[in-house]
Design a protein that fits this description.
The structure holds two protein chains of two kinds. By secondary structure, chain A is mainly α. Chain A has eight helices and no strands. Helices cover 80% and strands 0% of the residues of chain B. Chain B is built from eight helices and no strands. The chains are: A mainly alpha, B mainly alpha. At the A-B interface, helix 3, helix 7 and helix 8 of A face helix 2, helix 3, helix 6 and helix 8 of B.
Chain lengths: 211, 225
């Protein structure tokens, strides 16, 4: 049954893990945002021998389990600390989702914008940086937000490479104090309390950007 | 490599069994998810505020608490309340509830996307709510649901290695045994990723076929009528 004392003891432990969880989410998502854009741009580079392999690799990473990717990276890439490795793997996995999001956003920029750029003979860099990307990113901001929330809820996967995030802390506390019920329930509550308001925020942003 | 290949030959039956467990978990999880998705998705469209609000709350709860935590909660915490489920049942339940909640949004959205005039016409013809849903609305909403359901199905497949963390001998678990036996880490993991990739591709192709058929039946795909 629920033991209030155990819950009180578990709370600080779980919350200390929450800090690592947040850090992993922020860093992982930073990797995903940048690498995802890179993948999207390479796929649109117009150079076949770059676009095809990058696209194939992204599709492979996208449709295989991140847990197995973590296991693989854990034994194949030595010399990285757990958090760095975990953040990189999770970030690159999400980059393959985000590249599709960017692609949709870029495709949604009206053709007239490209034509206007050509008419003004803007240099290619400037076309992307000043015209296309600002409009594309605006369109995909809510999707990016949703993926950030979803990544946040997948950070417990990092515990398999020994990152001491919230669920690993909860698990350790649960096994040493025989208080799984309290520690895991608290971890679930923290996830809910953090992700639900954020998802409401994203939904408001979606409504705002819709018109 | 030679050691790996001979070990691989010896452990092929075990890997096959693991693959079956993974497929079983995916199929059962998807079946539960489908039920949950329709139950919550239809409830979210109810005219009664209590039903609608309740469905909303359940969906937010299931989506907001991480799948990983849900599975571990069912496996580690639930026994402390006096209910012990088989590890596989924990997995199927966690997958079904979590992806079912995501699916509920798909069901709700697809039904909302069927033009209101269709419902109005059905009412004008004197159809009751059940008949209307079954004969008019769902058949038109169904093709819209398939592409997002395909994504969810592949997500679910990709979540099944979690089972290996709660003592289920799934594909990941069995290949990990092979890795431990041979030390052929790179080869074992590459093999594992390739198998998951192949299964995901097959599931995707199956769902694409379902979508084509559903559209052809409605007469919205090229050539059909």
């Amino acid at each position: 049954m629920w033991d209030m004392d155990a819950a009180r003891a578990a709370l600080p432990v779980v919350l200390s893990g929450f800090g690592v969880t947040l850090l992993a989410t922020v860093l992982g998502f930073a990797v995903a945002v940048v690498a995802g854009l890179g993948v999207a741009l390479l796929q649109r580079s117009g150079v076949r021998w770059i676009a095809l392999p990058v696209g194939a690799l992204a599709a492979f990473v996208r449709s295989t389990p991140v847990l197995v990717q973590l296991f693989a990276a854990w034994v194949l890439v030595p010399g990285l600390d757990a958090l760095t490795l975990g953040v990189l793997v999770l970030g690159l996995h999400y980059a393959t989702y985000l590249s599709e999001v960017y692609r949709a956003g870029i495709d949604a920029v009206p053709k007239g914008q490209w034509e206007a750029c050509t008419a003004l003979s803007l240099p290619r860099r400037r076309v992307w940086r000043a015209v296309i990307l600002p409009q594309a990113v605006r369109k995909v901001l809510p999707s990016l937000g949703n993926y950030a929330i979803s990544m946040f809820k997948e950070t417990p996967f990092l515990s398999v490479v020994t990152v001491d995030e919230m669920v690993r802390e909860a698990s350790t506390f649960g096994s040493t104090h025989f208080a799984y019920l309290e520690s895991f329930t608290l971890a679930a509550a923290v996830f809910l309390l953090a992700s639900w308001p954020t998802s409401l925020l994203v939904r408001r942003m979606e409504a705002r950007l819709a018109h | 490599m030679a050691v790996f290949l001979s070990e691989l030959g010896r452990s092929l039956p075990a890997i096959g069994e693991g693959l079956l467990v993974t497929l079983e978990a995916t199929a059962l999880g998807a079946a539960v998810a489908l039920l949950v998705a329709f139950a919550l998705g239809l409830a979210a469209r109810s005219r009664l505020l209590v039903v609608r609000g309740g469905a909303r709350a359940v969906v937010e709860f299931l989506r907001g608490t991480s799948l990983y935590v849900q599975l571990f909660w069912l496996f580690f915490a639930l026994p402390m309340l006096g209910f012990r489920l088989e590890p596989m049942a924990c997995g199927v339940l966690a997958f079904g509830l979590n992806y079912g909640a995501y699916g509920a949004e798909v069901v709700r959205g697809a039904i909302a996307a069927v033009p209101a005039a269709q419902t109005e016409a059905a009412i004008a013809l004197g159809m009751g709510p059940g008949l209307r849903l079954r004969r008019i609305v769902l058949p038109q909403a169904y093709p819209l649901m398939i592409p997002p359901f395909k994504n969810l199905l592949i997500q679910l497949l990709k979540a099944t290695p979690l089972l290996s963390l709660v003592t289920v001998a799934d594909l990941t678990f069995q290949v990990d045994q092979l890795r431990a036996a041979t030390g052929g880490t790179a080869a074992a993991h590459l093999l594992l990723l390739l198998v998951y990739f192949a299964v995901a591709a097959l599931l995707g192709a199956g769902m694409n076929a379902l979508e084509r058929r559903a559209k052809a039946r409605l007469g919205t795909a090229g050539g059909g009528a």
